[in-house]
Specification:
The protein has 281 residues and is α/β, with parallel strands linked by helices. The chain is built from ten helices and twelve strands. The longest helix is centred in the middle third of the chain and has 11 residues. The chain is globular, with a radius of gyration of 18 Å.
Length: 281
């Protein structure tokens, strides 16, 4: 099976310590959780890994969570982590396919050439008794990262409103069905409930099995009926993280990398805004 955006634990373990290999870790927890990703990373990690903080390597001028950083900031932060755009970059999170997809997307639209996600994440790595480093973290030597930003793959709220009003895009929402329908509260307090007019519910969790995407043929069977010929695709979710899982699923199934609504529901559902919202089916 062709899985160019993933790497197995066996394949990664064989390459540990190679020149030009960069490993990125992110442990992301939902609002209200008491766990801290960087603390978890500092306790133990895959040997050679560095930590990518989605809320630090982000647009610090925005009140919204983990909005994409400028190319200049992204280049600076990646270089300081010892990562080049020409490296083989491996990303892992805890369960296998959650926040790792967002970092994969960040790197994709910033021009990194060879980025893969560890199948099964750190949970599988640990369960298979693979090597870990539990010594104090040492920052690697800096490198140069030259970001080439693909702005067409990032959609803002104004562009989203135009797409909705003109019915000119297929909008896929990665949140759970109850959140999409407006039947349950959002994890981030103070947001309105429901979904964008014309959006289609496609919970990201329905595309994942054993910490990685389901097979490419199965992905295509799910995705194909949802897509309209000639219409671009925009993915969205709660805060732009699991929307990247849908982007990864689309490109894995043979479609183009879609655009992603960076602010997602954190921006659209804000009570201070007047963006249109639907509830129910």
């Amino acid at each position: 099976m062709n899985r160019p955006h993933f790497i197995t634990p066996d394949a990664l373990e064989k390459r540990l310590g190679e020149e030009g290999l960069s490993i990125i870790c992110n442990f992301m927890f939902m609002p209200g959780d008491k766990l801290d990703g960087r603390t978890e990373f500092n306790e133990d990690r895959i040997p050679g890994a560095v930590y990518f903080d989605l809320d630090e390597i982000a647009d610090q001028s925005s009140p919204l969570p983990h909005m994409i950083a400028s190319p200049q900031q992204f280049s600076r932060e990646m270089g300081a982590l010892g990562i080049s755009e020409n490296d083989l970059i491996i990303i892992y999170d805890g369960p296998g396919l959650f926040s790792s997809a967002r970092i994969w997307w960040n790197l994709q639209i910033m021009g990194a050439k060879n980025v893969r996600i560890l199948e099964g994440g750190y949970d599988r790595w640990i369960s298979e008794d693979r090597p870990i480093d539990d010594k104090p973290f040492k920052k690697p030597p800096a490198k140069t990262f030259n970001a080439v930003f693909d702005a067409d793959k990032v959609v803002n709220a104004g562009q989203m409103l135009d797409l909705i009003n003109n019915r000119s895009a297929t909008i896929l929402d990665a949140r759970s069905a109850p959140r999409f329908l407006g039947e349950v509260e959002e994890p981030r307090p103070g947001l309105r409930l429901g979904h964008m007019p014309g959006a289609t519910s496609l919970p990201f969790s329905s595309l994942i099995e054993n910490g990685t995407l389901i097979e490419n043929d199965a992905l295509k069977q799910i995705l194909e009926p949802l897509l309209s010929e000639g219409k671009p695709v925009v993915t969205t979710c709660g805060s732009g993280v699991t929307a990247a899982v849908l982007a990864l699923a689309l490109i894995s199934a043979g479609y183009e990398l879609p655009a992603l609504f960076d602010g997602s529901w954190s921006e659209w559902g804000d009570r201070s805004q007047e963006y249109p919202i639907n509830k129910g089916e």
